[in-house]
Design a protein that fits this description.
The chain is built from 5 helices and 8 strands. The protein is α+β, with helices and mostly antiparallel strands. The strands form 3 sheets. Strands 4-5-3-8 form a 4-stranded antiparallel β-sheet, with helices on both faces. Strand 6 and strand 7 form a beta hairpin.
């Protein structure tokens, strides 16, 4: 079936028969064009979906980086004051419910300003980074270690047993006392610790 004609007084009559070669050729070209258009559109849609997927992944990376920077210290990578506040509030709630006990160890590096003034802030930063690595190595004895700012750190311990705390404090002091190799100098530092 390929056309309609008016025959005499009759309205429209469907004319059937074999299609001519011209009609078949144009039909073949129409099919080929449709297949090509479908292929091009499919490739375009696939390319766009891949690009959207890359944009979505990059966006998630940026969100993760922002979240990380909001809760972690840029220099040491340790949790910051904001993260620690949330963590301590959670632990205090658990302590109020009688589910756990905790202790906080606050410490700062003694005479850190002298190191910054004599060797420069880069050397001071290297000491803080090394100290952070050493404190992280003490886990799981300590639950959370955070840098409050400058040379101040806070350690959260999910236990308030005196003997255990004395042992942890000794480990922290030992980690701090171990000399740092900065430039051509071996620097020994000490720290003051308060317990609550």
């Amino acid at each position: 079936i390929y056309g309609f004609k008016r025959v005499g007084q009759f309205p429209l009559v469907i004319v059937t028969g074999l299609a001519s070669e011209d009609y078949l050729a144009s039909w073949k070209y129409t099919v080929i064009a449709a297949v090509l258009m479908f292929s091009v559109l499919s490739l375009a849609i696939f390319g766009l979906s891949q690009r959207l997927q890359r944009i979505r992944l990059r966006r998630q990376q940026v969100v993760d980086e922002l979240r990380d920077s909001a809760f972690h210290d840029a220099l040491t990578g340790l949790p910051n004051r904001r993260f620690l506040r949330e963590r301590v509030n959670h632990c205090i709630s658990a302590c109020s419910a009688g589910q756990q006990r905790l202790a906080l160890l606050y410490f700062d590096v003694d005479n850190f300003k002298t190191i910054n003034d004599s060797l420069g802030h880069v050397s001071g930063d290297l000491i803080l980074e090394g100290l952070a690595r050493r404190l992280l190595a003490l886990q799981p004895q300590i639950d959370t270690v955070a840098r409050l700012g400058g040379d101040e750190f806070l350690i959260l311990i999910n236990d308030d047993n005196r003997e255990y705390l004395v042992e942890v404090i000794e480990q922290v002091l030992q980690a701090v006392r171990e000399p740092f190799q900065i430039q051509d100098y071996r620097l020994g530092v000490s720290a003051s610790i308060g317990v609550a």
